[in-house]
Write a structure and sequence with these properties.
By secondary structure, the protein is an alpha/beta fold. The chain contains 11 helices and 12 strands. The chain is 38% helix and 13% strand. The structure holds 4'-deoxy-4'-aminopyridoxal-5'-phosphate.
Length: 386
């Protein structure tokens, strides 16, 4: 039997409507979007440009500001390393400000730059994952090049106030990058209103395919100058060479359009299912605490700690539901979650934490089944350890 899938923050299934849009681009319309000497190429090019317009309009951006990538990992690397490599800013500006709870695809490029002589400030968060904005403003100096703060955290779902952060960055004249991988398509984002200079997003978190993403790069007021990391044919305004993944890009465009159109409906439904899951688990079992901020959070992520429970044992006990003990991207290392560690949760609490993440295809009967499995498994594991 297929498990109840509650791991949408790790990845989503491709929406059948997205797949339909993509399929002809594998066989019939297989042209290279750079081969504009013939109709097959121009057809592919047009499809790529339509998708670019979709993604741009979802962000209030100009289509020329969207650069296709292989996913948010690459977008984050291009934003951070590409900016740091630009002779326009460096070597005078060699300080980066980021947060301890960022995704590894932000933290690792920062660490790599640190090894090459950059100074990096990793801001702490409080026990709910909240960032102190006064502190953020306080660490920016005339050497600061970049502030990189994610919009929504992938483990606990907290939403950082990107508009206020953008304002601080504008006042201090530093570049603002946000990793919006988890929030794009769920939360409204306007790059102008929020003063965002660079923004990363990914297809497979919004019911699009894996292996495709985008980086928004501001073109004016001010123009942001990144240096390419991949060199070759000069595709994507010289910022990212390589033959474009046309079916993937078409899929991401369609997924962005669907998200724009269906966001508010999806949100209400998912929030009420999340509330049901949270309420029932918490009230039927004692010793359950929420990790993160109960207010400023994405509607689809619920991270709970179960007292006297080991999350991996719990997951083994309930194969009927697919959840995550920590971020899927780092779970290979079996280290306690660094995000929960940054919240100063004690080790016991971290060990007993599970992320439930819901999505467009989650149903009420799935949530009811999940409640039954969780309550039964936690009760049984607790009584066995007594
Ligand atoms: N940033 C965040 C916040 C994420 O959740 C993820 C995916 N786990 C990524 C970046 C990396 O995205 P991708 O899988 O597209 O490389």
């Amino acid at each position: 039997m297929k498990p109840v899938y509650l791991d949408y923050a790790a990845t989503t299934p491709v929406d059948p409507r997205v797949l339909q849009e993509m399929l002809p681009f594998f066989t019939e319309h297989f042209g290279n979007a750079a081969s504009t000497d013939h109709a097959l190429g121009t057809f592919a090019r047009e499809a790529v440009e339509n998708a670019r317009t979709e993604v741009a309009s979802a962000l209030g951006a100009d289509p020329r500001e969207i650069i296709w990538t292989s996913g948010a990992t690459e977008s984050n690397n291009l934003a951070i390393q590409g900016l740091a490599a630009s002779p326009y800013y460096t070597p005078q500006r060699n300080h980066i400000v980021t947060v301890r709870t960022e995704h590894k695809s932000v933290l690792d490029p920062c660490q790599e730059l640190q090894e090459r002589g950059f100074e990096v400030t990793y801001l702490p968060v409080d026990h709910q994952g909240t960032l102190d904005l006064e502190r953020l403003a306080g660490v920016i100096t005339e050497k600061t090049l970049l502030v990189s703060v994610m919009h929504a955290n992938n483990e606990i779902g907290i939403l950082h106030p990107i508009q206020a952060i953008g304002r601080i960055c504008k006042e201090k004249n530093v570049v603002f990058h946000t990793d919006a991988t988890q929030s794009f398509g769920k939360e409204p984002i306007d790059v102008e209103d929020c003063g965002i200079d660079l923004l990363s997003l990914s297809g497979h978190k919004i019911y699009g395919p894996k292996g495709v993403g985008a980086l928004y790069v501001r073109r004016k007021r001010p123009r942001v100058r990144c240096k390419a990391l991949l060199h070759g044919g000069g595709h994507e305004r010289g910022l990212r060479s390589g033959t474009l993944n046309v079916p993937g890009i078409v899929g991401l465009g369609k997924a962005a359009r669907l998200a724009q159109r269906e966001r508010s409906e999806d949100r209400e439904r998912i929030r009420s299912l999340r509330d049901l899951l949270e309420r029932e688990i918490t009230s039927q079992l004692g010793g359950v605490t929420l990790n993160g901020d109960p207010e400023a959070r994405l509607e689809n992520i619920l991270n709970l700690s179960f007292a006297n429970i080991d999350a991996s044992a719990l997951m083994e006990h309930m194969p009927e539901i697919a959840v995550s003990a920590s971020a899927a991207c780092t779970s290979a290392s079996m280290q306690p979650s660094y995000v929960l560690t940054a919240l100063k949760d004690d080790e016991e609490r971290i060990k007993g934490s599970i992320r439930f993440s819901l999505g467009r295809f989650t149903t009420q009967s799935e949530i009811k089944a999940a409640i039954t499995h969780v309550v039964r498994s936690v009760t049984s594991l607790r009584s066995a350890s007594r």
